[in-house]
Write a structure and sequence with these properties.
By secondary structure, the protein is α/β, with parallel strands linked by helices. The chain contains 20 helices and 14 strands. Helix 2 packs across helix 4 and helix 17 crosses helix 18. The longest helix has 23 residues.
Length: 454
């Protein structure tokens, strides 16, 4: 759902989540560490809470775990969530126990030996000898397995992707979704330039490269404790996927405008919009979750921006929204969605119960309500972090069919105006992990041509 990606980034920066290691696998593993990992994976698989939230709670309750231990646990749990379907096939168990999933993951993906597991007392897991499991894995030709297994995508997600993108493209997309994301950074240009921030991070041992599309983005292949850097503490940076950064440019946010971030969440895009408006005008940050907006407050304080007005709303029909009807220049609707575009960061989404019809109905209601805020000539950007046409193009088509006062603005025209070096094959904005190395994002730029009906 909406906000998961932002939640993970914020928790990582604040140190509530471990920094995942890029080192080689440990040569020895303490039995307690394996048990901790299996316990956390079990919790994630049987509950409906996001994995990052369960992980935050788990590490809070197990403060004795060091940074390296936390890194191993987090990386292993996320790895098992990404590769679950293939791992279950390799071990011949469906569903497989958390212990067997972890053992198979370590043997297959991390290159561990049977002896390494036997050394911690894991000669047999769920009646399967570890050495027999190793031989079975080695004999398996993974490339010859059915697409449903190789993709590591559940049927509810695989089938609509195949219908939209075809088999070859879906497999490329699935492969990208089943790998960890890079660490993308957005520079707060109200305080520093991208070049100045890059130099500061490099001085502290965290070199970063400019992102290819966002003019205020930096990228690191490896994670690191950036929350301890001068750049973070001084409010020079935020963790934000490059694709998310680009959505704000589609708004054409200018100084002195009145802008609404309709589903602000933890405020990453809100902060960017406010900076693009050069800390002028008003940027309203709406969200139905008081908890999410509370997490926004320390970020807002660090940013040094004072043109943002956070506001908790009851729902899309809140009375405060009605008071702003016809008075707003720009609206961003980063709609609640399935979140499947963020599977690199949130692989647990694949294993959660998602009612797409219910989500789409909510998206349609929110878009209709948010559109009423706009002045004639005002711009609305409808966006999701989804790859599913049902949540994206179909929602926009439904809106345009029922709202003749709006027209679709060709996204390539907007990108050229914003000097973003991207060309889209259709009139809408669509980013893919395997093409653009970002999370999966969709956006449509809509413009009001006549006043709202009073």
């Amino acid at each position: 759902m909406h906000g998961w990606c932002a939640s993970f980034s914020i928790l990582l920066l604040q140190g509530a989540l471990p920094i995942m290691s890029n080192d080689k696998p440990m040569k020895k593993l303490h039995p307690n560490l394996f048990r901790h990992t299996a316990h956390l994976l079990a919790e994630v698989l049987v509950t409906h809470a996001p994995a990052d939230a369960k992980m935050q709670l788990f590490f809070r309750e197990n403060k004795q775990l060091g940074a390296r231990d936390r890194g191993f646990i987090a990386e292993t749990v996320y790895g098992c969530l990404r590769q679950r379907i293939l791992l279950e096939h390799l071990c011949g168990q469906h569903p497989a126990s958390p212990a067997l999933l972890i053992a198979t993951y370590l043997l297959y993906k991390e290159g561990w030996s049977a002896r390494a597991l036997e050394d911690i007392g894991l000669e047999i897991i769920d009646d399967i000898p570890v050495r027999a499991l190793v031989e079975h894995i080695r004999s398996m030709d993974v490339s010859a397995l059915p697409l449903a297994i190789r993709s590591n995508l559940p049927e509810w997600l695989l089938q609509p992707l195949l219908a939209t993108y075809g088999e070859a493209e879906t497999m490329k997309l699935a492969d990208a979704l089943n790998h960890p994301a890079t660490l993308d950074i957005r520079v707060n240009t109200q305080k520093m330039t991208r070049e100045q921030v890059a130099a500061s991070l490099a001085d502290e041992g965290f070199p970063a490269e400019p992102t290819p599309y966002s003019p205020v983005g930096l990228r690191r292949a490896k994670r690191g404790p950036l929350f301890q850097t001068k750049a973070f503490k001084s409010g020079w940076i935020e963790i934000q996927d490059e694709g998310s950064q680009l959505l704000s440019y589609l708004l054409d946010a200018q100084p002195q405008l009145n802008t609404v971030d309709f589903c602000a969440g933890a405020g990453g895009k809100t902060l960017h919009i406010a900076a693009l408006q050069q800390n002028s005008g008003s940027v309203y940050a709406f969200d139905v979750s008081e908890k999410r907006l509370a997490k926004f407050k320390p970020r807002l304080k660090r940013s040094g921006l004072d043109n943002i007005r956070p506001r908790v709303i009851r729902d899309e029909n809140d009375i405060y929204i009605k008071r702003l009807r016809g008075r707003i220049d720009r609206v961003l609707v980063d709609a609640p969605c399935s979140g499947v575009g963020t599977l690199r960061r949130n692989p647990d989404i694949k294993w959660r119960e998602i009612n797409l019809d219910e989500i789409v109905a909510l998206q349609q209601r929110i878009l209709a309500a948010a559109a009423q805020l706009l002045k004639p000539g005002g711009r609305l950007v409808y966006a999701t972090c989804s790859l599913l046409a049902q949540e994206n193009q179909q929602v926009v088509d439904h809106f345009l069919a029922n709202n003749p006062a709006f027209q679709l603005v060709p996204v390539n025209t907007v990108l050229q105006q914003q000097q973003i070096n991207l060309t889209m094959p259709t009139g809408v904005f669509q980013l893919f992990p395997h093409v653009h190395q970002t999370d999966g994002f969709f956006a449509a730029v809509l413009e009001r041509t006549t006043p709202p009906v009073t």
